[in-house]
Amino acid sequence: xxxxxxxxxxxxxxxxxxxxxxxxxxxxxxxxxxxxxxxxxxxxxxxxxxxxxxxxxxxxxxxxxxxxxxxxxxxxxxxxxxxxxxxxxxxxxxxxxxxxxxxxxxxxxxxxxxxxxxxxxxxxxxxxxxxxxxxxxxxxxxxxxxxxxxxxxxxxxxxxxxxxxxxxxxxxxxxxxxxxxxxxxxxxxxxxxxxxxxxxxxxxxxxxxxxxxxxxxxxxxxxxxxxxxxxxxxxxxxxxxxxxxxxxxxxxxxxxxxxxxxxxxxxxxxxxxxxxxxxxxxxxxxxxxxxxxxxxxxxxxxxxxxxxxxxxxxxxxxxxxxxxxxxxxxxxxxxxxxxxxxxxxxxxxxxxxxxxxxxxxxxxxxxxxxxxxxxxxxxxxxxxxxxxxxxxxxxxxxxxxxxxxxxxxxxxxxxxxxxxxxxxxxxxxxxxxxxxxxxxxxxxxxxxxxxxxxxxxxxxxxxxxxxxxxxxxxxxxxxxxxxxxxxxxxxxxxxxxx
Amino acid sequence: xxxxxxxxxxxxxxxxxxxxxxxxxxxxxxxxxxxxxxxxxxxxxxxxxxxxxxxxxxxxxxxxxxxxxxxxxxxxxxxxxxxxxxxxxxxxxxxxxxxxxx
Lengths: 498, 102
What we know:
The structure holds two protein chains of two kinds. By secondary structure, chain A is an alpha/beta fold. Helices cover 41% and strands 12% of the residues of chain A. Chain A has 17 helices and eleven strands. Chain A is globular. By secondary structure, chain B is mostly helical. Chain B has three helices and two strands. In chain B, 17% of the residues are buried. The chains are: A alpha/beta, B mainly alpha.
C-alpha cells in the first residue's frame, strides 16, 4: 500500500487495528519516493534511517499500548522544507551557499512534528532562500507540479506542496513570507495554512524576512492540517516572537458556518488580470457558504494595493540583514585560496548565492542606505500601519475573509508571464503577512478551462486561525476532495490493489 | 526611465553587501536594480502625514525575556562542525590586514 496517499485518521486507524505497522508505513513511503520522485523532484534529501528509527518507536508504543499518548501525528509520513534545520541532515535552502551544510541542531517546528510521532522522510525543495514563487530558483533543479509536470508547482515551498499532492508524504511543513505556503498549495491542490505571525516558533528556520516569516503545514485535508497545527503552535523560549497557544484547532471543524460572517472584497474580484476560473471559484465558494447559513458581507481593504510596494521594500531589507550571516567563515560556501578576508567574503558570496538572492541582497543594501531609508523603508512601515488598520476595521464586521490566492492556476514552465498578472499575483497573499494575520488555501476543485487545481483563500484575525479552519472544513464537505494528483493517485490505486 | 543608481553606485552597494561583482555583471545588475527601484515608486506617493510606523506585525505584544539561568549550548566541536577552515579549535580566516597566508 502507498500509505503516504492516506490521511492521518486512516493511517492511525490502521495502526491501531494492527492492519499494518509504522515500519511498513515508513518503508512504503520511502519506496514510493524512490519510485516516483524522479518525475517530481520534491525531495532534496531522503532520510530512511530517521524515518525507520521513528517508526520503530511508534511500533514499540503500539505493542506497549501507549500509542494514543504519542501525539497527533503518530505514524504519519512527514517531510520538511529545506530551510528547516534537522540535526544530521543537510539544510541547503536550495542554495550552493549551504550545499554541504549539515545541521548541528533541530528547528523547534521540526522537533515538535517528530515529537508528535511524525515519521521524517526527508527535506523538500524550494526557491533558493525562499526567493521566488515557482521553485525555479532552486540551485538543485526545479520541482514539477504533480497535476501536470510541465507546470510550475508554485513557490517558494514548491517541494512541500508537490510532495503532498503526489502522495509522497501525508503532511509537510513550509514557510510563508509573502504567500510561499498558500500559493503553492493552491497550484498543487492541497490545503496549506500560514498561521498568525507568532503562532509557530521560527527557531532553527533559516530567516528571510523576520517580521513576515511564518511556518505552517501542508496536508490533503483540513483536519490533517489542524492536527499538525495542534502539534506546531505555542510559545518557544527560543523564539521571542512566539506566543502561547493552547487551542485545539480541530475543536470546531464540524461546527459549520451558520451565523458566521464572511467578508468578500469586491475590488479583489474585479481586479484586472484575475482569471475567470479563479473568480468563479471564489464566487462559488461564497455561494456555498451562504447556502450553509453564513452571512456574506462586502468589505473594503483600501490599502491592499499599497501592500505590494511595501512588501518589496521590507522583504529585501530584512533579507539583506538576515543573509549577512553567510560569511564563509563559520559555515557555508568558502571560495578557496584568498589571502585577504574581504576578498574571501566577496568571492564566496558572489559564487554561493544565486542571481535572485544577490539581487535582493543588493536591493536591501541600497534601500537601507543613508538618505534612501527615509524615502522607502520608513513609509513602508507606515503603510503597514494602514494595512493592519484596514484589516482591524474589516474584522469589526466579519469573522473571516474569503479571497483569491493567485490570479491564475499553475502556469507552464517557460510561459511568459504578463507583468500585470505577476504584480497582481502577490496582491492577495502579501497583505496578510504585512498585517500578521492567518491565511490558508482550500482547494475547491479544478478550473473549468485549465483542468488544474483552483484554491480559495480564507483569512482570519490574528490568533483566530480557528475561524478560517472552521469555514474551510465546512466548505471542504461541499467539494469533492481533490486529493492526490491523478497521474500519481492512479499508481497508488494500482499498488493499493495488489 | 529614471536613473536611481549609477554603475558606480551599484559597485559601492555591492562592496557594502560584500558581494563580488564582475565588470561584465555590472551593467545588467545596474539595469535590474533601476527597474526594481522604479517599481517601488508608489510608496513615495502616499500621503502618510501623521501615520505611525509599525515595525512589528503584532503590535500590542511586548517582548518576552527568559530567566537569566545557564542553558545548554553548542560544544566547541559542534560550533566548528560546518566551518570551511579551522585550526586549534578556532575558525580560521585569512589575514584581515593583508599579507598573511591563505
